[in-house]
């Protein structure tokens, strides 16, 4: 109807409004009501354009990954009071979209001779405080030189990447190096649960020796069940959405990208909805936990 009213408004200099409304079979009162709201519509359009600019900046800063929930949370963090449905409408009208996830090939190769550790997490992907539950897994990134394998440990209390390692193989040394980094950062407490799948890297004597040295407890999910290590699988899906959709020219370039993603974006910029604190970055979540313990 707006197009029809605009046509009448454009032709009213040449023909009477009464005649135009009669020909177009619309009520004059409806046309005058539309004309009376024109100023409000222009003002609303200007406001939407300004909001769209803010959303575009936040979307680019998120590496083109944020959808409606996190864009809305970022706007609220910046003091912008805006309805979530309005944010969704502006995103839809400007065709701004978050990333979508794709399937990946599993690297889990269980060692038939090794006795796996019991599952100490039981699909409970929450922890009351940092350093009590870490989950780990291995993924791979394509480069022109071959695969780059990445092992990572994630703290369930904060979803912070506390340790990671990269190499051109996925032997036991890879997950041990990642655990050494997590321990060097002062992450896991004595008795911390270290959860993973039943891949041969995690059931190796070398990895178990390092866990015993640090005074940690090993936990393993069942073979073939991605839900037993859902937090780690979810993180890989996120990483591959953002940086794993292309082939890097060499492993050094891919390493630099992983470092930037882990240390800069994931730990310090990416918002996650905490069940108690709301939308915070992993680093902010850790600080909240530390303040709560100090209090």
UniProtKB/TrEMBL annotation:
Organism superkingdom: Bacteria
Region (Disordered): 101-125
Stored InterPro entries: HTH-like_dom (IPR025948), Integrase_cat-core (IPR001584), RNaseH-like_sf (IPR012337), RNaseH_sf (IPR036397), Transpos_IS3 (IPR048020), Transposase_IS3/IS150/IS904 (IPR050900)
Basic and acidic residues bias (residue ranges): 108-125
Domain Integrase catalytic stretches: 126-290
Function of the protein: Involved in the transposition of the insertion sequence.
Protein name stated in the entry: IS3 family transposase
Species annotation: Streptomyces althioticus subsp. attaecolombicae
Lineage: Bacteria, Bacillati, Actinomycetota, Actinomycetes, Kitasatosporales
